[in-house]
């Protein structure tokens, strides 16, 4: 059930009304039932799978806490992590591994008898798997108590606003809120509605309107030149951001209506001044997870005797390769993750030289210019990596990278060719980008929610009506629905 659909609006309205008609201590049961219905509606068989993974983690968590011996705790925790990871690998990566093995053996002229494998990918499996792994590891580390109520734990895993595409919640954040049985809070609910409207605007007015221009180039990369590829990639950067952050805003907004504060996932990422800074602002819940459960354990290992700085560089690169693989079972995602890891490793190695250069040319004496330069460089590097993230195949991605130097002699004509005859739609897309980025500039200076809520009622509701009309009358509701990009991860 897509967030941007009439069915979901009806579903959310019914769930909300019934939720607040029920006694406070019974509401979590209704939310759990609604969440299971929401998930099972797409593929009922996968409901069995997520409940099995939830039940296993619930039981193993109690076992980890119950045994007194640390080595025994570690073995139980490792068993849980292996089983959860195996579940993810089987359903998400088996076709990818199968085709990779076929290619390797093919280059060695060895016949490979296993046919191409295709099966459905359980919705949200990457997100809930990471949630369950972090739960078990945190219990082993003594950072989390094992949950005793299965229903509350099941709601922590399956809570429908964040189930499909995050944020990746931690037990220490969401479980206490579930046990608190939050009552209705009018102010919080209004903030939630504001977030939902803003998220829908980003999705249907901006992201979905940009999509056709991006698809026209990326669906036929052989016919595109460097100007078209660069421009389409620049547009894709805003499509992806408005799509994913739009989903997150909707999820956070729904959570607030029910009294739950989900983890913030974005903080103006395209104003980052370095790749490190970008990953502190983009998909924050994933970055935090990878830091705690991949990067930190690698840097604390004692098997390999190497300098800590070098170990940190290796750990950083491995972490981002894992990030790429988490996003999708394809070499394009692996390369995308490796590029980001490489960016950070190189920047750390060259940091002193760059700082000396900036002082020599007196960039540090012009902080606004220096900041603008760093933002531009960071955004350009992020966009270059997006070529691999968006390209259908590795061959397409390499072809597009190789074509980046072409078409610049007739820059204007090639740029306009991306827009084509849809100039009105493109103009509206640019307006949408400007509105989103303008709001983020203001957010960096003032608290936008407090600023809006401090205005007179007529002014606030005028803004809400304008936003709603923009979504309904000018949103991309026409034609086929465009699913959220992160739904396939």
TrEMBL record:
Per the record's keyword annotation, is Transmembrane helix included, yes or no?
yes
Location comes to: Cell membrane
Q: According to its UniProt record, in which pathway does this protein act?
A: Glycan biosynthesis; alginate biosynthesis
What keywords would UniProt list here? Acyltransferase, Alginate biosynthesis, Cell membrane, Membrane, Transferase, Transmembrane, Transmembrane helix
Major localization class:
membrane
Q: Name one GO molecular function term.
A: acyltransferase activity
According to its UniProt entry, the protein's GO biological process terms are:
alginic acid biosynthetic process
Family from the record: Belongs to the membrane-bound acyltransferase family.
The protein depicted here goes by the name Probable alginate O-acetylase AlgI
Instruction: Specify the taxonomic lineage.
Output: Bacteria, Pseudomonadati, Pseudomonadota, Alphaproteobacteria, Hyphomonadales
